[in-house]
Amino acid sequence: MADFRPERRFTRIDRLPPYVFNITAELKMAARRRGEDIIDFSMGNPDGATPPHIVEKLCTVAQRPDTHGYSTSRGIPRLRRAISHWYQERYDVDIDPETEAIVTIGSKEGLAHLMLATLDHGDTVSGAEPQLPDSYLWRRYRRGAGAFGSIGRGGGFLQRAGARYSRKLSETENDDFGFSI
To answer: Aminotransferase class I/classII large domain location, by residue (predicted)?
Structure first.
């Protein structure tokens, strides 16, 4: 039998930290084996079944041959218009469906690609904690820095974030994983 192992190591992959959701899954399994009752807040999965009318619509649409192909890369125009309308109704924000709305398979994927597309070496990303663990990872791939602060209690997050953003953080301070890419 042939050996298909790679001849070289991929150093970027070797330096990746353990994936936090794998760690929490292992901890949950161990706790359940010990008979502990677990309430899982790790991934934000729904805690109930999808409403029947949504399942019915999905089944109906899946039977149509015109739905068996790939969507356009920006998403279906009607869906982008609905996204723009939702932002207008909910937040009173005007979003152009042609240039400011895009459909992704999830928020994590969308944020990862946003960072991949927009961050350059040395850019600083400002944001709140807690945040998705992958945000750190994609920022590190692009060699960007971070100025993150806990939302905390009592307000003042935006002022604290502004103060942190205004000072240049060293690469060491921003090495969230204890490694460099």
So the answer is: 37-129
